[in-house]
Amino acid sequence: MEGRSLKMDIDDSSTSNKVSVSLTAEVLDYHDPGPNPGHTPPAPPNEVTQYSGLGPTKANEKPRVVVLGSGWAGCRLMKGIDTSLYDVVCVSPRNHMVFTPLLASTCVGTLEFRSVAEPIARIQPAISREPGSYFFLSHCAGIDTDNHVGFDGSSLVIGVICGSMMILDRNAGSVHCETVTDELRTLEPWKFKISYDKLVIALGAEASTFGIHGVKENAIFLREVHHAQEIRRKLLLNLMMSDVPGISEEEKSRLLHCVVVGGGPTGVEFSGELSDFIMRDVRQRYSHVKDYIHVTLIEANEILSSFDDRLRHYATKQLSKSGVRLVRGIVKDVDSQKLILNDGTEVPYGLLVWSTGVGPSTLVKSLDLPKSPGGRIGIDEWLRVPSVQDVFAVGDCSGYLESTGKTVLPALAQVAERQGKYLFSLLNRIGKAGGGRANSAKDMELGDPFVYRHLGSMATIGRYKALVDLRQNKESKGLSLAGFLSWLVWRSAYLTRVVSWRNRFYVAVNWATTFVFGRDISRI
Amino acid sequence: MEGRSLKMDIDDSSTSNKVSVSLTAEVLDYHDPGPNPGHTPPAPPNEVTQYSGLGPTKANEKPRVVVLGSGWAGCRLMKGIDTSLYDVVCVSPRNHMVFTPLLASTCVGTLEFRSVAEPIARIQPAISREPGSYFFLSHCAGIDTDNHVGFDGSSLVIGVICGSMMILDRNAGSVHCETVTDELRTLEPWKFKISYDKLVIALGAEASTFGIHGVKENAIFLREVHHAQEIRRKLLLNLMMSDVPGISEEEKSRLLHCVVVGGGPTGVEFSGELSDFIMRDVRQRYSHVKDYIHVTLIEANEILSSFDDRLRHYATKQLSKSGVRLVRGIVKDVDSQKLILNDGTEVPYGLLVWSTGVGPSTLVKSLDLPKSPGGRIGIDEWLRVPSVQDVFAVGDCSGYLESTGKTVLPALAQVAERQGKYLFSLLNRIGKAGGGRANSAKDMELGDPFVYRHLGSMATIGRYKALVDLRQNKESKGLSLAGFLSWLVWRSAYLTRVVSWRNRFYVAVNWATTFVFGRDISRI
Predict the structure, then answer these.
(1) Which of B455, B460, B434, B454 shows the shortest CA–CA distance to B445?
(2) Interface test with B, best of A128, A257, A282 (most B CBs within 10 A)
(3) Inter-chain contact A240–B129, Cβ cutoff 8 Å?
(4) Closest CA to B298 of B339, B332, B261, B338
(5) I need a labelling partner for B310 at 20 to 30 A (CA). Which of A459, B142, B160, B497 fits?
(6) ipTM at complex level
(7) What is the percent of chain A where pLDDT is above 90?
C-alpha cells in the first residue's frame, strides 16, 4: 500500500495521461523473467496470473520495441530494426510470417506449406537470442496507452516498501496478452502484460464477410497456412468421397464443385491453380470422377479490377479456356451445401473459398484510438498514432487520418512491407538520436514522411500464364504484360522475394518436382 | 420377392457357408457405379444408404481383390499385383502409406511430413485409372464371409423379377465400409458394401496402452503422420509457452520435459532425434529456455532388447552422452501433466510420447475368425485364413495358427513388407491359373509356403550415430555395427527403400537443408 500511495505522490501531473491508482498498483506486481528468472515467484500451472509480464525497461536495459503481429509490416520492421539500439518483443498467435502471394499455390500442392512460411526467429534471430528480446505466441487482448508516462533515466522513482529501499520502475504504456490455447479446453490462456517504449501495431485485417449469413461457418478464407491446409484436405476428401459407390450423380457434382467468391488477385490465382490441378493431376489420378469437377468464380463486379483493361480481358479469356466458369453475382446467403445469389440462383458446392477483401479485425475495432475512414487505426504521415506517444500503426490495420489529406492506401502486402521498411529506419534514427525510451522522442525532428509509390501488380492465372501490370495506378500509362513471359517474370520475382534462402530453395524445388512428378495428393 | 425365393432355391448346399435370406435380399439392392454411373438412383446426401456398394463381379469383369489397409503389407501387395488379372479395391482411412522408419525424424523437422508419405495412387496407379479399381477413404466396419458362395462363370443365376428376365449376380463375401468424417459432426458417414473375389486383410495393429489409465487421453503415439504433426506442434507450443513472462521455474521445467515411454527402436530413434534437435536447434533458437529442456526415456526392461548386447551398451552410452536420461520403470498412471511410476515416483511432463509396442485393433478383435496367440488373425503357411475361402491376412494384424507349428512373427515393417510381396506373387499365380474368381481356387496347388528370413535391424540414436545388426536372430552370429559408418548405412538403406523417386529426392533434400539451415520451426 505504501508503494501505491508513494507512486501517486510522484505522478507526473503535467502529462495529459492520467495514472489511476489501480494501474499503478498493477505495475508493482510485474515479474520480470529477464536475465535471472530464478527470482520469479512460482505460479501454479494454468492459473490466470493477470499481472505478470515484462515491466517498464530499466536504465541499464535497451529500450523495448513491442511489435504486435507477424505479417508483412511487422516482419519487415523486425528484420531491419537495429537490435543494438532496441530490444524487440513480438506478440503474435503464429510464430512465422506467411508469404501470402504464394499461399494459393499451396492449396493444391504446387508448393508445400512450409515453403511459404518463414519462422520469425529466422527473420530476426535476436528475438530468440538476446536476453531482452522475445517472441510470445499470444493474442493481443488490449492496449493500455493511458499509463505511458515515462521518466528519463535520471529521474528514477525511489520508494520504500516494507521498510526496504528499492528502485521503482519507470511507467510506460503496455499491451495485454493472452497465450494461444489451440482451442483446447484443457489449456487455460496465460495472461500477461508487456510495457513498451515504442509500440508498433501491425495487427493486419480480417477477411470480410459483409455480414452475409453462413459465410463464417461454411466458407474457407485464404489468408493463413491453416486455411490452405483446410482447403487441401477438403478438396482431397471431396475427390475421394465422390468416388464412393452409391453416391448420386447430383451429389457427385456438388462435392466436386469448387466455388470461389471474389475476383481479386487471390481469388483469380486460386481459381487458376485449381484448374491447373484439375487439368494435370485430377485427370490422371482421379480419372473416375474427372468429368464432374468444376470451378466457378463469382464476382460482383469485374475480376482483377485494379489491373489494366487489356490484361483483365486476357485473364477472363484464359480462365474461361481453362474451364473456370465466371459468374457475375452477389452472394445473399450461404448454407453448408449451397449458396444463394441475389437473383435467387442456388449454387450447390463442395468447397467454398471466400476472398472478397478485408476489413478491420475485432481487436482493432475495439481500440479506443482515432480511426481513418473504413475503421482502420488513424495515422499521420510518419505512421504515428497522433493522440498517443510512441505508438505507430502499419500495414492493413492502419490508414491515414483525414486531417493528413492523404487517401488511405490499399490493404496490400506491398504497402505493408514498404511501411515496415520506412518505420524501422525511422525507429533506428530515433534510437541513434537517443529517443528510444518512452516519451523521449516527443519533440524530435522525424525527417521525411512516408511516401508510397506503387511498383505494379502481378497475378498468375494458371497454365503458365500471368499478368504483370507495372503502371503506378489505374489512370497512368506504363508497361503491362500478359502470358508466358509474364509468368516467368512472376515466378522469378517471387523466387527472389521469398524471405530466406532456405525457402527460396524449397520453392524452386517444389516447382521443379511439381513439374516432373505432379502435385502431391497425400491427405495428411 | 420372387428374386429372394429363387435365390434360395439354387443355394449351393454343398458349401459349408449358409446363405441367409436377408443377406440374399441385400445383394439385390447393390448399385454398381462402374462404367456407366448414370444408372445409379439419386440418393439424398448424408443419408445412410446401408446397402449401396460394389456387387459381386460379373463374368465380363476382372476378379476383384479387396485390400483392407494401406500399410506396409497392403501397399507392397498392391504395388506388385498384376492389374491385368485383377481389379484392385483398397479401403483405408488414409490415402497414403507412411514410411514408418523415418516418421520419428519428422517430429522435430529433420524431415518433412510429406517426404515420408506416399500416395497409394502413386504406388498403384491402376487404382485411380482402371474402371473397376478404386480407392475408398473409409473405415472397414466389418467383414461378411458367410455369403461367399461363388459360382463359376458358366452357372450364372437367371431369375424372373417383376415379370422380366434378368441375370442375377454371383454371390460373394463382402466388406462393410463407412466413409471417414474427419470427426466433423456435420458429416454423416456414408455406408456401403464391397463384394470380393479375394480379400486381403492388412489392417495393422494399434498402439497398446496395457490398460494404463490416462494413456489414450494424454500421450501421443507415433504411428501416423498426424501423430508426428501433433508432437511437432506440441513441442513448439511448449518451447514458446515456457518463454512467457511469469511462468514459474517448475512449470517451465515441466513444459520442457519430454518423456518417451518404450525403449524399442521407435522410442530410441525419437529420443535421439529430440536430443539432436535440442543440441543443435534449441540451443541456437530458443536460447532463453535451452537449459530447461530435457528428454527422459522410460523402459520397463532393457532398451533395444532385440539388438546385440554390444550395440545396446553402445546405444545406452551414446544416448546418455546426448543428455537423454534413461529410466528403468513401469508406468502406473498418467494424468495431463505428470505420470506415476510403479514405485510411486511422479514424473511431470510437457510432452509424452508412447511407443511401447502394438496389439490387435478393436476391429480385428471383433472379427469372428480364428486367432493366433496374442489375438492376431490366424493364418496358415500360405497366409490364408483357413476357416473361410479366399481370405488372406498379412502384416501386424495376422499371426500363425498354433496348428502350423510356426511362431508368430514380430510386428515389424520388414515382416509385413515381405508378406505383402509373397502374397502378390501368390495371387498373381492363382490369377494366371484361372483361380481369380470367388471360390475357384479351392483345390489349387499353392506352391511354396511363406518363409520369413530376418535381414537384420537398424536404429539411429542421434548425433550421426546408428546401430546396424545384421544377425538373423538374437542367438545367431553375424555382423553388427555401431557408429558413424552405421549411420551412413542407415541413411543410404532408407534412402533407397523410400518408395518413390519423388520422396527419395525430398528425403535427400530435407536432410541436406537440415544440415545447412537447421530444422524448420514454423508452427503451422
Answers:
(1) B434
(2) A128
(3) no
(4) B261
(5) B497
(6) 0.85
(7) 71
* DSSP state for residue B213 in the 8-state scheme: B
Task: Please compute the mean of the pLDDT values over residues B189-193 and round it to a whole number.
Answer: 92
Work out the number of other CB atoms within 10 angstroms of the CB of residue B428: 17
Q: Do B136 and A95 touch (CB under 8 A)?
A: no
CA–CA–CA angle B476, B477, B483 (5° rounding): 120
- Give me the residues paired with residue A138 across strands: A179
SS3 category, B321: helix
Per-residue confidence (pLDDT) for residue A11, from 0 to 100: 35
CA distance A153 to chain B (A): 24
Partners of B35 on chain A (C-beta within 8 Å) are none
Phi, psi of A42 (to 5 degrees): -65, 125
Contact in structure between A406 and A426 (CB atoms under 8 Å): no
Residues of A in contact with B244 (CB under 8 A): 136, 138, 179, 190, 192
Helix axis angle for A413-432 and A72-80, nearest 10°, is 30
Local structure of residue B458 (DSSP, 8 states): E
Which range among A215-219, B286-290, B418-422 shows the weakest confidence by mean pLDDT?
B286-290
Q: How many beta-carbon contacts under 8 Å exist across A and B? A: 218
Cβ <8 Å between A254 and B45: yes
Quote the minimal CA–CA distance from A449 to chain B in Å: 35
DSSP annotation string for B269-281 = HHHHHHHHHIIII
Contacts of A343 (CB under 8 A, 6+ apart): A329
What count of other Cβ atoms lies within 10 Å of the Cβ of residue B11? 16
Residue A218 has pLDDT above 80, yes or no: yes
- Degrees to nearest 5, angle at CA B76 with B74 and B77: 65
B182, A233: Cβ pair inside 8 Å?
Answer: yes
**Contact criterion met (CB < 8 Å) for A286 and B96:** no
Half-sphere CA count of A492, side-chain side, radius 13 A? 6
How many angstroms separate the CA atoms of A51 and A56, rounded?
Answer: 13
- How far, rounded to the nearest angstrom, does the alpha carbon of residue A146 sit from its chain's CA centroid? 26
SS3 B395: helix
**Mutation target vs B (from A139, A188, A235, A247; most B CBs, 10 A cutoff):** A247
Model confidence at B262, in pLDDT bands (50, 70, 90)? Answer: very high
Among candidates B125, B361, B319, which has minimal Cα distance to A285?
B125
First vs last C-alpha separation in chain A: 57
Per DSSP bridges, beta strands A64-68 and A198-201 are parallel
Q: What are phi and psi of A236, to 5 degrees?
A: -70, -35
User: In the structure grid, which three cell numbers stand for residue B127, read together?
Assistant: 487404382
A180 contacts B237? CB cut-off 8 A: yes
What is the value of pTM for the model shown? Answer: 0.87
| Distance in angstroms (rounded) separating the CA atoms of residues B159 and B5 | 10
pLDDT at B183 over 60: yes
Contacts of B112 in chain A (CB under 8 A): 112, 114
Residue numbers in B near A349 (CB within 8 A): none
Determine the pLDDT at residue B475.
Answer: 75
The distance of B353 to chain A (nearest Cα, Å) reads: 18
Interface touch A248/B179, C-beta < 8 Å: no
The chain A residue lying nearest B236, using CA atoms, is A95
